[in-house]
Design goal:
The chain has three helices and seven strands; from the N terminus they run H-E-E-E-E-E-E-E-H-H. The chain has one domain: Peptide Deformylase, CATH 3.90.45. The chain has a five-stranded antiparallel β-sheet with strand order 1-2-3-6-7. A two-stranded antiparallel sheet has the order 4-5. The chain is globular and about 45 Å long. It is of the alpha+beta class. Helices cover about 30% and strands about 30% of the residues.
Length: about 180
């Protein structure tokens, strides 16, 4: 497993719609394993393939925040929300591609997601709470949408300027 570099906003690849995974290949399995390792290393609770520069519809998540609990990462290929609740939740979201920036985002509190697993079978599960928020956040990534696209334009511009500055500073450090 390889820890892959995570793209930082603004990056045009983060705004593109990812392509469906046509079939499960050794490359897809390697990507999934690398993404799980990268997510835990970051540390984060979810990571979508576009965040590591791969425009495929795959994301990983493990929204269990208890450090004592056994890790149970999920790998979802071609995920699709098939139902969402009318009830809404507000979570302060962050993103590995927008480090150290957070904003409250309102989303459905429950969703039903259907996806292809690495086992080649179709899966379906109901998610609520943080799991539902995480799944929606990661599916947004696959559609070229960032959590800051759900907040006011002024706040989004402020965060984007901070990310441009961060990228400049990191580039200087590596020069």
């Amino acid at each position: 497993m390889t820890i892959r570099p995570i793209l930082i906003h603004p990056d045009p690849r983060l705004k593109k719609v990812a392509e469906p995974v046509a079939r499960i290949t050794p490359d897809v399995e390697t990507l999934a394993a690398d993404m799980v390792a990268t997510m835990y290393d970051a540390p984060g609770i979810g990571l979508a393939a576009p965040q590591v520069g791969v425009l495929q519809r795959i994301f990983v998540m493990d929204a269990n925040r208890d450090p004592e609990a056994e890790r149970k990462p999920m790998v979802l290929l071609n995920p699709e929300i098939t139902w969402e609740s009318d009830e809404q939740n507000i979570y302060e979201e962050g993103c590995l591609s927008i480090p150290e920036q957070y904003a409250e985002v309102t989303r459905p509190s429950q969703v039903k997601v259907s996806w292809l697993g690495l086992d080649g079978k179709q899966h379906q599960e109901d998610f609520d709470g943080l799991w539902a928020t995480c799944a929606q956040h990661e599916i947004d990534h696959l559609d070229g949408v960032l959590f800051i696209d759900h907040i006011s334009a002024m706040r989004r511009q402020m965060i984007t300027r901070k990310m441009v500055k961060l990228k400049r500073e990191r580039a200087r450090e590596q020069a």
